[in-house]
Design a protein that fits this description.
single chain, alpha/beta, Arginase, Chain A, nine-stranded parallel sheet, 13 strands, 31% helix, 20% strand
Length: 383
């Protein structure tokens, strides 16, 4: 079992733990240490796993180790969580990158079977690929959300790297990818061919400026996600606290924490990966707070997925110029969904109806005869 490959937390990360107050996170989660061994997995909700696989990294060389992050994370105080959390230590690199992929897939498969959400920390962004392979093993359609400044497609068919893992996912068989959404892309980091491919495949995207203007618009995207991968090259230099390792434009610290909280709240997200971590003065604290907010979101899950709209939901029907659109609003969480009908099924006297997460603004736009772009793309993918 690949879980047996995990190595204990480095003693350096545990130095000073005895001096911390008993209420801090480090003293209220299970730790994989040399003396205690691998924690009992039964009953766990969330598991942290460190990665150091950078051989396919955009940066080409290792940038970050997570011992210093652990110190900052262990020092934080938990929220009002009734959760069992464990730090399972680090996964050593395999002899080849494919060996590392295999180990991540096996670990992910085992944890998903146990309904445990792994948070993979470190390594390059292509490590989303073995998380995707878990869904191939389950033969289950998957939605991937990438917080990234670029789309990560490749112009070279066989290449897989931190800049091209999406090409590998699209071509790999069996194909269980239902949707890919990019949050935070910047036009000058995306080739015209990549934008054309996004449109051709009816994938979704949201530009950096739109996210900075209204981060709450990303919540429905996370609500429909199974895998969330965050490429930390998306950060502005202010968030990275280093003008040499951040970007002139990018996501700020407050926004990235809000987005990880939305990912945690999603009843559907089963994998979180935070990759391409720059070694900067503020990264340890920012990363610790991002994971804190993800766990906080998880503790606040509404258990509204899959949605049963026969009770606890208000139904709104909107007649547009050429069709009827149906929206649902949860009385519990005040969140919104829009109905999707697969028209190709109508000849069989049955309707294939699903729900797409949306915002109240989408409902208000429909009143002005405007069709939400995510709804349009979803209908095209279904047909």
């Amino acid at each position: 079992m690949s879980l047996e490959l995990l190595v204990p937390i480095d003693n350096e990360a545990l130095l000073g733990m005895s001096l911390l107050p008993k209420q801090v996170i480090g003293k209220n989660i299970q730790l994989h240490t040399t003396s205690s061994g691998l924690p009992e997995l039964q009953g766990l909700h969330i598991a942290l796993i460190g990665l150091n696989e950078y051989r396919n990294s955009f940066f080409a060389t290792p940038q970050y180790t997570i011992n210093s992050f652990r110190k900052k994370f262990y020092e934080l105080y938990p929220g009002n969580w009734k959760l069992k959390i464990a730090d399972l230590g680090d996964l050593p690199n395999g002899s080849s990158v494919n060996d590392t992929y295999y180990a991540i897939k096996e670990i992910g498969y085992h944890l998903k079977q146990m309904n445990i959400i792994p948070i993979f920390i470190g390594g390059s962004h292509d490590l989303i690929f073995p998380m995707y392979q878990v869904y191939q093993e389950f033969n289950q359609l998957v939605n991937i959300v990438a917080v990234d400044r670029s789309f990560d497609f490749s112009q070279e068919e066989e290449l897989i790297s931190g800049r091209s893992y999406m090409s590998k996912i699209i071509m790999d068989k069996p194909n269980v990818l239902y949707n890919y959404t990019n949050l935070g892309f910047q036009n000058y980091y995306c080739a015209t061919e990549e934008k054309d491919l996004m449109r051709k495949l009816f994938f979704d995207s949201m530009r950096l400026g739109n996210i900075l203007d209204a981060v709450s618009d990303t919540e429905p995207v996370f609500r429909d996600a199974d895998i969330v991968g965050i490429d930390m090259k998306c950060l502005s230099w202010q968030a990275a606290a280093d003008p040499l390792k951040g970007n002139p434009n990018g996501i700020d610290a407050r926004t990235i924490c809000a987005m990880t909280r939305y990912a945690g709240i999603s009843d559907r997200v089963s994998f979180l990966g935070i990759h391409e971590l720059p070694s900067t003065p503020m990264m340890d604290e920012l990363l610790a707070q991002m994971i804190w907010y993800f766990i906080e979101g998880y503790a606040l899950r509404f258990e509204e997925y899959p949605v049963a709209v026969n009770q606890g939901f208000l139904k709104y029907s909107v007649q547009l110029s050429d069709q009827m659109m149906v929206f649902y609003k949860s009385e519990k969480s005040q969140r919104w969904w829009i109905e999707l009908i697969n028209k190709s099924q109508l000849d069989n006297k049955t309707k294939n109806v699903t729900l797409l997460a949306c915002t109240e603004k989408d409902y208000e736009s429909s009143l002005r005869d405007y069709i939400p772009e995510r709804w349009y793309n979803a209908i095209r993918r279904m047909s």
